Amino acid sequence: MNIESLRDYCLAKPGVVETLPFGPDTLVFKVMDKMFLLVGLNSPDSFNVKCDPEKAVQLREEYEEVQPGYHMSKIHWNTVSMEGRLTELQLKEMIDHSYALIVASLPKSKQALLHSYGMERRKHH
Q1: Which residues have a Cβ under 8 Å from the Cβ of 75 and sit 6 or more positions away?
Q2: 3-state DSSP call for residue 31?
Q3: CA distance 30 to 53
Q4: pTM of the model as a whole
Q5: CA separation (Å) from 19 to 42, 47, 64, 119?
Q6: Contacts of 51 (CB under 8 A, 6+ apart)
């Protein structure tokens, strides 16, 4: 996976927008105004994703490519290297997990809006 395929994968998810809230060097993907993935444009070979705290520790112990979140809450965020032995499927699972955590934390009204948006997009594809 590279930054282009990472970007395409994130933007394909319902309700996702890309922003640059921390300046021109950090691309941030948000769902309903909540961050779920960050990637530094100066170091596009890794990204930060939200993760369940227990799962985060497990992943860090199992894979050297998964480290505590750089410049983030180290309990809830991991920095994941796209260079190494993690497969594209594993990387996508980490992105999906982060997205799902954020969606689950949204108010029910926003979740419903997101769900209807996703259903509408599927009709047109």
Answers
A1: 53, 56
A2: strand
A3: 20
A4: 0.91
A5: 16, 15, 29, 24
A6: 59, 76, 77, 78, 94, 97, 98, 101
CA distance 93 to 90: 5
Q: Domain range for residue 20?
A: 3-123
**Whole-number Å distance between alpha carbons of 38 and 51:** 13
Find the CATH number of the domain harbouring 11: 3.90.1150.30
Other beta carbons within 10 Å of 87: 9
Residue type, 124: H
Based on the structure, what is the number of domains in the chain? 1
30-74 per-position pLDDT tens digit: 999 999 999 999 988 999 999 999 999 999 999 999 999 988 888
What pLDDT sits at residue 122? 55
